[in-house]
Structure formats: structure tokens, C-alpha cells
Design brief:
The protein is α+β, with helices and mostly antiparallel strands. It has a single domain, classed as paralog of FGE (formylglycine-generating enzyme). It has a four-stranded mixed β-sheet with strand order 9-8-7-10. A three-stranded antiparallel β-sheet has the order 1-4-11, covered by helices on one side. It has a two-stranded antiparallel sheet with strand order 2-3.
Amino acid sequence: MSALPSEDMALVPAGEFLMGNPVGSDGLPDEQPQRLVYTSAFWIDRHEVINATYAQFVQETEHRVPANANPASTLWENEAPITGIGTHPVINVSWEDAATYCAWAGKRLPTEAEWEKAARGNDGRRYPWGNEWDFTKANSASYWAGQTIDFQSGADWDAFWVKGEGANISKKKGIKGEVLTMPVGSFPESASPYGLYDMAGNVAEWVQDWYNPNYYKEAPLSDPQGPPHGAIKAMRGGSWLKPAISLRTSDRDWGTMDSRPSGTGFRCAKDAF
């Protein structure tokens, strides 16, 4: 008998999919080699966890509220999200916060393999919507820059956010003059093959696995769970801060377990059987 999902979860069926990128491609070394990986069926949230839902968790459990290292940039006041961001993805949460929330909800964090399969389907697509970059389909640095062609270098990206138009946009349109998250599901035309939203951009997402850049060279081909130990945790999906290369379905990122970035949130998963 299948586990009962929430009304906002999608079922990803059992089967194989192409994970990572082949050697010699434009993928990064930690995405290689590309492998055909099997996952058992699982449920996964269609949307990133939002502030309003996270607030219910905080109220019921007295868990600490999301907070930025700079108190002036924290988006919660009096143990509740500030007005207007209830449907935005929660940010400033650590991996431990995310895992605790998922357990409270009767779920868990997805593995890297589950997350990637849910984002790209079984045809190896580069982005959730297909193989071609489209800056109108994800909340990203390119979206705010209005760039059909993505940033050509790290220096270009840095110049945009630090001293360029991105800095001005953040001050004018950002939450507290800083954060440019958007309500979840703001780009419905970019849904993944399984009907998931914001699998590219908006916020990066914590996943279950320890991060190891060489893991794919030795990882099992059936339901990989990540390395047995490590020092940092994996993230997926890129964020509003990131250029197109970081929003690819195969791109891998990481953070320390106790970090609480302004560009990172999460979604939950659960076993199907």
C-alpha cells in the first residue's frame, strides 16, 4: 500500500534516469561520470516549503525561527514571517532545520538522486523545462538582468550584483532591500516532467546527502543515499542569486550543516511504499 502524500506532492515512479553529465561535456567535474541510476518510487513536494507553512511548524514545536547572520536582514519578526512573504520559500534555514521540519511533517529530505530525477525526468534534460536556457522561466540572476544570453564570466556576474544593476534592483524590489525570492510557482511553464515547480532558481534546496565531489565515481546505481559521512551537505537547484550554469538539473552545490543562507530553502520527500 502506498504511503499517503499531502495534496501538494507528486509521485515519481520507480525506474532509471540519466544522472550527472558525461565526461567531456560542459558539466562540472563533480557531476561526472554520467550514470544510469535507478530510484524506487517516491513522493516529493511540488513546491518549496513556504514561510506560512514553516510558521505553523515553529508555532507547534517552538523550533527556532529562520534568521540571517545579520539581524537587520532577517525576514521574520516576533516569530512570524513579515507581511507579504507567506507564499515565498522559507530561507535562512540550516540543513538541520530543514531535516527537522520534514520529520515534523512526516516526511524527509530527498536524496540527490531523487531530487535530480524529479527535476529532469528520464530524458537527461538540462533544465526542468528542456535543454535550452530561457531566462523567463526561472527566478535567477539572468531573470533580474533580463539577459537572453547568460553571464559570460564570474566577474560579469559579480559586477552585476555588487556594483551594477542587480544591486539597484535588490535595493528597489528586494525584500528588506535585499532578498529577491518570489512566490512559489511563479513560473508554471517551467514545471519539471513530474509537475514540480521552481526546481531551477528561486531558492537552492537542501537535500539529504553528504556532499563529496568524487561520489559519482563509486556511488551505487540503485537508490544511492550519498556518502556514509562527511563535513558538508549537498544543495540543488540554484537560486535567485545564481546564473544559468547553477540552475542546470545536474548542478551540485553544498553548505555546512549549520549555515543559514539567504538563497537556500528546501522541499520534502517521502517513500511511496
